[in-house]
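Support request, priority: normal
Reporter: lab tech (M.K.)
Component: structure prediction queue

Hi team, I submitted a job for Origin recognition complex subunit 4 from Grus americana yesterday, and the status page still shows it as pending. I've pasted the exact input below so you can check whether something in the sequence is tripping the parser. The sequence length should be 238 residues. Please let me know if I need to resubmit or if it's stuck on your end.
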Amino acid sequence: LELLEKRVKSRFSHRQIYLMNSFDFKQYIRIFKEQLSLPAEFPDESFAQQWNNNVQHLSDDKTVQGALQNLFHYTKDLRSLHLLLMLVVSNVTVHHPLIAASDLHEASKQYRMDSKANIVHGLSVLEICLIIAMKHLNDVYEGEPFNFQMVYNEFQKFIQRKAHCMYNFEKPVVMKAFEHLLQLELVKPIERPSVRAQKEYLLMKLLLDNNQIMDALQAYPNCPTDVKQWAASSLSWL
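Reply from support: The job had stalled in the queue. We restarted it manually and it finished. Here are the results:
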């Protein structure tokens, strides 16, 4: 029995189990409040009450909720929330003792100014189109995972509406562009690929939020107008 246990441990020791956070946005807001609030045993009771009342006010603020919603759709990883809160709290001083909604908004912008947005500037138009297709899927399915086939179908809708032969690539070419986005870590699989799984149907997640995409498109050199319009279009486009 001991030998069997050792063999099992040896065979499966390389395996990793990836767990996705299952909480919804309401719970995410509650975590935000819990992380920022001061404990009951804080020495200065008066300040603690003032601080915690302000945190409650922040959690009800629409601007703050919008910034948190963007981060929530981008990643539910609480380390990202902690990093955002560290940026916010680092601005607290004697002369600015309470966090304002504008502080969180600025910290959110600072958090988004990362290498991923800069990578977008070097992508091909086809790769940009795939990112926009994923953006629309995120909007429609509220951040739920998608696969390559869904992205390809979304891209085909754009081509059919615009009737543009310049965007009409063969499916293997589109797949290569999608794989390049994976290599750049702009998209990631939410589960480890198995040998039997078809790569067209592996569930994926986009690692760019809507603001990052729109900001990058504004700075993208010679971005076609119809591609920009597609990115900015509402759900009615679909």
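The first helix runs from residue 2 to 12. The longest strand covers residues 187-189. Let us know if anything else looks off. Ticket resolved.
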